[in-house]
Amino acid sequence: MPKKKKIGSYPNVMIVVSLTAALFLIGFCGMLVIQSKKLVSIIRQNIEVRIFLEKTLSDPGRDSVLQIVQQKAFVQTNGGTPAVTFVSKEEAAKEFMEGTKEDFTAFLGENPLRDSYQVKIQEDYFEEAKLKLIKADLETINGVYEVVYQEDLADSINRNITKLYIVLSSFALVMLIIIVLLINNTIKLAIYSQRFLIRSMQLVGATNGFIQQPFLLRGATQGLVGGIMAIILLVVLQQVAIRNIEGLSMLQEYDKLAFLLASLLLLGVAIGIVSTYQSLARYLKMALDDLY
Amino acid sequence: MEFSTEPVVTLERADIYQGQKLVLADVHFEVNKGEFVFLIGRTGSGKSSLLKTLYADLWLQTGSAKVAGYELHKIKRSDVPYLRRKIGIVFQDFQLLTDRSVEDNLTFVLRATGWKNSADIKKRISEVLMQVGLGTSQKKLPHQLSGGEQQRVVIARAMLNEPNILLADEPTGNLDPEVGDQIMQVFQTINNAGTAILMATHNYDFLKNFPARILKCENGEVKEA
Question: What does the similarity note say (chain B) (predicted)?
Answer without folding.
Answer: Belongs to the ABC transporter superfamily.
